[in-house]
Design goal:
binds nicotinamide-adenine-dinucleotide, alpha/beta, 27% strand, 34% helix, nine-stranded mixed sheet, single chain, 17 strands
Length: 351
């Protein structure tokens, strides 16, 4: 199996997960990191025993000794840092959301297709065995025609400090500020639950309406350089191209939930309940005779590979993998239309 040399761009919180996941794949070496913050970069490469560090993507490209890249910079930085890598023929696993708006995401998808490199968006919950099994069951007709779904992504880092203090730490503050490129909870975890729900219920969204809410969180809505104007709560209604309708919501004020995802999906012959809660991926089903009795049973599901393992396998095989940049750009279009819908009084907006 050929060795794959990986570059990590953005050496903040999530980059640790990338390095730890690559360390579990035989023949993969993280050879360098890039960060505009020299102290963070130095601490990161020392912690993970990485031999090279650079202050910019252009410096890393001038060096060039890598095959594939994990882009773990903040959302608004993905576009400008990924394009030169694609032009140089590097394979890219980019964090979600793919970009800060649909136009940038579409440009990235187009550039990736033209470069012919492996391109993937890190929708981490595609690693949940329950989700993958549910998508297969629905595609195989286990619940008949999909009619209705409800999905949620619940976090509470604005009401408790289990992951640190959002009032003082950059990694939370940029997520609360539009001028720092954040689309709020909609772009941060809303995009995860949008992918999660539509991966199972039907990939193509026909129309969306959405209400976004930003709560007062600090005096004058400002902490230092951060204006706290990005949404904290999103409530979305979707109509899919296959005729199914559903609701999706996400919040950072969901006290009692650290990081929980849920999808309930109902069809003409059965229902599925797909959960990721307390780091556990769980599937329940009501099918056949259980539908009449209103009974739900646990479904055991086979393990699935991580996104990182699937990305590396695709690089080695010279094949494409999903969710790719095209999917990321399609999701980003729904996000932009959700913002538009909210600005127009939750008007139903055709995709
Ligand atoms: N897939 C998931 O479940 C998941 C989870 C957490 C975060 N994320 C995503 O990962 C990305 C990073 O999030 P995070 O929590 O690690 O943020 P973070 O703020 O902890 O880290 C971002 C790092 O990028 C660096 N950076 C900024 N501009 C840069 C540039 N031009 N070049 C190189 N480095 C630059 C910052 O200095 C910082 O060290 C975001 O897009 C976020 O949405 C995804």
């Amino acid at each position: 199996m050929r060795d794959v040399r990986v570059l990590i761009i953005g050496t903040g919180g999530m980059a640790n997960n990338h390095v730890e996941a690559y360390a579990k794949i035989v023949g993969v070496r993280v050879v360098a990191g890039v960060d505009t913050d020299p102290a963070r970069l130095a601490a990161f490469i020392q912690k993970h025993g990485i031999s090279h560090g650079f202050g910019s993507v252009s410096e890393a490209l001038a060096w060039g000794e890598f095959d594939a890249v994990s882009n773990v910079t903040p959302d608004a930085i993905h576009h400008r840092t990924t394009l030169p890598l694609l032009a140089a023929g590097k394979h890219v696993l980019c964090e979600k959301p793919l970009a800060a708006n649909a136009a940038d995401a579409a440009e990235m998808a187009e550039a990736a297709a033209q470069a012919g490199v492996v391109n993937m968006v890190n929708h981490s919950y595609r690693e949940g065995p329950a989700l993958v099994a549910a998508a297969k069951m629905v595609a195989d007709g286990a619940i008949g025609e999909v009619r209705h779904f409800e999905a949620s992504y619940l976090q509470s880092w604005l009401t408790q400090g289990a992951w640190g203090d959002w009032r003082t730490e950059d990694q939370w503050l940029w997520r609360l500020s539009k001028s720092h490129g954040s689309m709020g909870v909609l772009g941060d975890v809303g995009v995860h639950i949008l992918d999660y729900a539509t991966y199972v219920a039907g990939l193509q969204v026909a129309s969306v309406s959405c209400r976004l809410t930003t709560f007062d969180k600090a005096e004058g809505g400002q902490i230092g350089e951060y204006t706290l104007d990005a949404n904290d709560s999103m409530n979305m209604h979707l109509r899919l191209a296959n005729g199914a309708v559903g609701v999706i919501h996400a919040s950072r004020f969901a006290s009692g939930h650290h990081n929980d995802l849920s999808l309930k999906i109902y069809g003409t012959t059965g229902g599925l309940d797909v959960k990721f809660a307390e780091k556990q991926s769980l599937l329940k089903a009501s099918l056949g005779g259980d539908v009449k009795g209103g009974r739900w049973v646990d479904v055991s599901v086979p393990p699935v590979d991580t996104n990182y393992a699937r990305f590396i396998a695709a690089v080695r095989a010279g094949e494409q993998v999903t969710p790719n940049f095209e999917r990321g750009a399609a999701l980003q279009r729904v996000l932009d239309l959700a913002v538009q819908s909210d600005a127009n009084g939750c008007l139903d907006t055709v995709v």
